[in-house]
Specification:
The protein is built from 33 helices and 25 strands. By secondary structure, it is α/β, with parallel strands linked by helices. It has 2 domains: 366 residues, 3-Layer(aba) Sandwich (Rossmann fold), CATH 3.40.50.2000; 325 residues, Rossmann fold. The protein is globular and about 90 Å long. The structure holds N-(acetylcarbamoyl)-beta-D-glucopyranosylamine. The site of N-(acetylcarbamoyl)-beta-D-glucopyranosylamine has 17 residues, from helix 6. This is Alpha-1,4 glucan phosphorylase.
Length: 801
């Protein structure tokens, strides 16, 4: 959009007057933010209405991305960038003595997700709008987002994230789009006048679902899509239908908190209610919208695609069946045909404990009609498959097994597409984890390697590097990340390498200043900034990183004059509140940090900064300043990873196992521009097959490992008598589930390679450049375009800009 500084200032002052009755100079940054946010929303409202109208008039097929998590982070700067008014607004504010960065401080980080899965959903929202693709999100408007993390005595403490407290300028409550969702009670099927069996509900709770819409602004293209988040409300009850205080509380809980767990299946009833709540509300509103266009329900798959992001929304399958059977009165066969065509599903993890299974009794209690439909889907599936392929495979793949509903099975059987999120992950799905399903439906399986919104992860968060890129290769990369490849021509150009290095140095200084100011840790920007930022999980092996740090520390203690490349190890990681082992690792990292950071013998060669409350905003500060990207999960465990992509895009060199998308990063940058170590997936599986891994033997025979592990139990590291023992036992006594000790020496070698490469400035510069130049293929723009073409069968709409 076009906007002048003068016009902006006028608009901004007017907003402040109207909204807060205050002058610019008297307002706080919270008020500046509230005014600016609502002004920006007004700026894009015309495009929003236009996009909406265009979809209706052109009868565009639209896709709906159902996800129980979205992790957008802050939206102000991103919206300004995408509207093309970032500079004008920044200048306009400056002329009123306001720094945009101060205004941004007042925006809460919208964290309605745990980690990779939720952030991916938000990157997709940004990319879909930017590619003019008709894709909308559908999720839950949690009153409280992911907990805020603090460290007290080195332990993680969780605080509530009341992100809505100060108001939210981006959302619009759509009162007239509310729908009713039924839960509980019992069901009887009774014939209607024409003899159809119609379900009658007895004692069901009727909940009111209110949508709050947040708009997804495309990058300089005039497209604005919608992220619809549902909130529960107590319905206005008929007389006599009075809810007790407890019952009201129970209802309100449904959209109160995000489950702070991204890996373990949590069997709490409330989670199941959340899942059904947003699935039912979302699908009802989609079908209502579709039917308003006057088209026949039979044609639904021509106009609507529904994506099931991991299994949490898998009840989309029986819920759409319910709508088609009970409300549109279609036959089972017709309804099933439509449902399978509309639905598609992404799997995000191979970890067995994350595969959702619900006790049948619980499903029947909470959503009785849905349970009936699941039973019927299962019955027909078993009959078909047994007849065509045999009973064994039918029994292994059926939805209801051992009194549990297997959500992944439901999603696969009820949809036309199942994809993994990196090549190796999709191959493991086909060949190992979901092999039986692959035999039944080979055509349904496909891969869609994850991607990242490069606008946020480069243009917004790394303005220094963006400037260097503009100067060197022009600005096309801003619209087309593939154009980053042009940078490769400069790999030997010392001037360009120097400018990139200077941009990095600038960002490192900023981060160092932030770390000093917030956490009083002194770090030198001349040191390697070695970064591991992700959820804390045993399989991601933050512990491997820590063991190496302890080794470096012990080496330096033994020989304080030893020449050692100075390093700063930066961690960001939350642990699920109930995941004790992950919390133990956090405590140990913090205690090692306290020990190392204050030891004068180390002479500053080693620093550890475990930054609390890792979230999208913190990631935006850390990533531009990273030299080394730690992607060290045990091969076969990380489905894809996305921080690996963000870090490479910002010129960090990856130290990685051959896991998830690391393999594709290696292919993109070439072996000489990445440092690979550790077991391969095949080797890991071989250990499983032969059952011959022996961690104790490694501990007993490898003097380095022996010494490092002993430091956890002999008092060398203070204040971890319980935690150190737990770590030690997990590795030695319980045989090191994630082969940390097996990969240790190889990892140390990898770290040595990194340090040597870093000392050769030109060599390092070239590695960084090659990473930036080849990150374009991990743009989420490309990824959503693949989803659009192969899975959703939707097309981009025409845009003017
Ligand atoms: C994550 C995967 O662990 C990560 O490898 C992947 O990059 C990301 O999804 C996006 O696909 N999974 C989750 O965050 N959570 C679950 C339940 O899988």
């Amino acid at each position: 959009m076009s906007l002048t500084v003068t016009q902006f200032k006028k608009d901004f002052k007017k907003r402040l007057h109207e909204k807060y009755a205050i002058e610019v100079e008297d307002a706080s940054n919270v008020e500046w933010y509230g005014a600016l946010g609502s002004l920006v929303k007004a700026y894009y409202s015309k495009s929003l209405r236009k996009t909406h109208k265009q979809y209706i008039e052109e009868e565009t097929k639209q896709a709906y991305y159902f996800s129980i998590e979205f992790l957008p982070g802050k939206m102000l700067k991103s919206n300004l960038l995408n509207l093309g008014i970032l500079d004008v607004v920044r200048d306009g504010l400056k002329s009123m003595s306001i720094e945009l960065e101060d205004v941004m401080e007042a925006e809460p980080d919208m964290a309605l997700g745990n980690g990779g899965l939720g952030r991916l959903a938000s990157c997709f929202m940004d990319s879909a709008a930017s590619c003019a693709l008709p894709v909308h999100g559908n999720g839950i408007r949690y009153d409280y987002g992911l907990f805020k993390q603090r460290f007290v005595d080195g332990y993680q403490v969780e605080l509530p994230d009341s992100w809505l407290q100060g108001g939210n300028p981006w959302e619009v409550r759509r009162e007239n789009k509310a729908v009713e969702v039924r839960m509980g009670g019992t069901i009887a099927l009774v014939p209607d006048n024409s003899g159809n069996l119609i379900p009658r509900y007895y004692n069901a709770k009727v909940l009111r679902a209110i949508p709050y819409d947040t708009h997804m602004v495309g990058y300089e293209n005039g497209v604005v899509n919608n992220l619809r988040l549902w909130s529960v409300e107590i319905p206005v009850t008929e007389e006599g239908n009075y809810l007790t205080l407890e019952e009201r509380q129970e209802v309100e809980n449904i959209t109160a908190v995000l489950y702070p767990d991204d890996s373990n299946y949590d069997g709490r009833q409330l989670r199941l209610k959340q899942e059904y709540f947003f699935v039912s509300a979302g699908l009802q509103s989609i079908v209502n919208y579709y039917l308003r266009s006057g088209q026949a329900i039979e044609e639904l798959p021509e106009k609507v695609a529904v994506h099931i992001n991991d299994t949490h929304p898998a009840m989309c399958v029986p819920e759409l069946m319910r709508i088609l059977l009970d409300e549109a009165h279609l036959s089972w066969e017709k309804a099933w045909n439509i449902t399978v065509k509309v639905m598609s599903y992404t799997n995000h993890t191979l970890m067995a404990e994350a595969l959702e299974k619900w006790p049948t009794q619980m499903v029947e209690e909470i959503v009785p009609r849905i349970y009936q439909i699941i039973q019927e889907i299962d019955r027909r599936f078993v009959a078909d498959v047994s007849e065509q392929v045999g009973c064994d495979i039918a029994n292994r793949t059926r939805i209801i097994q051992n009194d549990h509903v297997h959500m992944a099975h439901l999603a696969i059987i009820g949809s036309h597409s199942t994809n993994g999120v990196a090549k190796i992950h999709s191959d493991l799905l086909k060949n190992v984890v979901l092999h039986d399903f692959y035999l039944l439906y080979p055509e349904r399986f496909n891969n869609k390697t994850n991607g990242i919104a490069e606008r946020r992860w480069l243009q917004l968060s790394n303005e220094e590097l963006s400037g260097v890129l503009d100067e060197t290769i022009g600005k096309t990369w801003r619209k087309d990340p593939g154009a980053l490849k042009l940078l490769e021509a400069y790999r030997k150009d010392k001037k360009v390498l120097k400018k990139i290095a200077q941009a990095k140095q600038h960002n490192k200084k900023n981060l160092a200043a932030f770390i000093k100011q917030e956490y009083d840790i002194e770090v030198s920007s001349d040191a390697i900034f070695d970064v591991q930022i992700k959820r804390l999980h045993a399989y991601k092996r933050q512990l491997l990183n820590l063991l190496h740090i302890v080794k470096l520390y012990l080496d330096l203690k033994e020989n304080p004059d030893r020449h050692e490349q100075a390093r700063v190890f930066i961690f960001g990681a939350k642990a699920a509140p109930s995941y004790d082992y992950a919390k133990t690792i956090i405590k140990c990292i913090n205690e090692v940090a306290a020990m190392v950071n204050h030891d004068p013998d180390i002479k500053g060669k080693l620093k550890i900064a475990f930054l609390p409350n890792y979230n999208v905003s913190l990631a935006e500060k850390i990533i531009p300043a990273a030299d080394v990207s730690e992607q060290i999960s045990l091969a076969s465990k990380e489905a894809s990873g996305t921080s690996n992509m963000k870090l490479m895009l910002n010129g960090a060199v990856t130290l990685a196992t051959l896991d998830g998308a690391n393999i594709e990063i290696k292919d993109a940058v070439g072996e000489e521009n990445i440092v690979i170590f550790g077991l391969t997936t095949e080797e890991v599986y071989q250990y499983y097959r032969n059952n011959n891994y022996n961690a104790r033997e490694i501990y007993e025979n490898d003097p380095t490992i022996h010494r490092v592990l002993n430091a956890f139990i002999d008092g060398t590291i203070p204040n971890i008598s319980r935690e150190g023992q737990e770590i030690f036992d997990s590795l030695v006594k319980y045989n090191d589930e994630y082969f940390t000790l097996r990969d240790f020496n190889d990892y140390v070698k990898g770290q040595e390679t990194i340090a040597a490469a870093y000392q050769d400035t030109e060599r390092w510069g070239e590695m960084c450049l090659m990473n930036i130049a080849n990150a374009g293929r991990f743009s989420a723009d490309q990824t959503v375009e693949r989803y659009a073409e192969d899975i959703w069968h939707i097309e981009a709409v025409a845009t003017e800009e």
